[in-house]
Specification:
Length: 207
């Protein structure tokens, strides 16, 4: 092979290598962007506690809710607190008002998995399990009925139609709404194809 042929082959290999490195860089940048959009909130974390902190069981970093909501008060469960991971030992409850909302920054048109958990644990000593509703913006999501279980978790796939999203707890009777954790996860475009709105929620029990 002459010099010109060798040079062309070398340049071809070099261009392919540059292309591969560029693809790797783009994928890494996208992964980093996804990580930055992750939100894991310990809704009952007191203001004087370390935030964020790493939950040892899952490796997730949980933050306080101070920049997401101003209403509500914090409490600590009294029944079997040692049986729960740290984010579920505390909670945020809402004795005032009918509707209390978290204001979340999102990317319009992107698919998100929204996960929230609720543990009553007789934090108020009244031994009255609450019942209340969840809303995403103006849309009803689910009824939370803690009379049936010790704790519960709800999940939903949602595509926001703007760059902001309100997650709301709504009082429907005499009991007080509460929440333990709230998580927001951006999902890949190939995960359950939905153009807008939400995909029916999933339900599980926190034992």
């Amino acid at each position: 092979m002459d010099f010109v042929g060798s040079l062309r082959e070398y340049l071809g290999l070099l261009l392919r290598l540059i292309g591969i490195l560029a693809i790797i860089h783009i994928v890494q940048a996208q992964d980093q962007l996804v990580i930055e959009w992750f939100i894991s909130l310990d809704c009952g974390l007191p203001a004087n506690k370390l935030s964020p902190y790493k939950e040892t069981g899952t490796g997730l970093w949980f933050s306080s809710v101070e920049s997401f909501i101003q209403s509500g008060k914090t409490g600590r469960i009294k029944e079997n607190p040692e049986g729960y991971a740290k984010p579920y030992e505390t909670l945020r409850y809402f004795p005032d008002g009918i509707r209390n909302c978290y204001d979340l920054s999102v990317e319009k048109g992107r698919k998100y998995l929204i996960k929230d958990s609720f543990v009553y644990g007789n934090y108020d000593g009244n031994d009255i399990d609450p019942v209340f509703d969840l809303y995403l913006g103006p849309n009803h999501w689910a009824e939370i009925d803690l009379r049936r279980v010790n704790g519960t978790r709800e999940e939903i796939l949602h595509v926001p139609t703007s760059n902001s999203l309100q997650f709301c707890l709504v009082k429907t009777g005499t009991t007080t709404p509460l929440i333990s954790t709230l998580e927001l996860r951006p999902m890949g475009n190939d995960t359950y194809i939905i153009k807008s709105g939400s995909l029916k929620h999933f339900f599980s029990v926190i034992s």
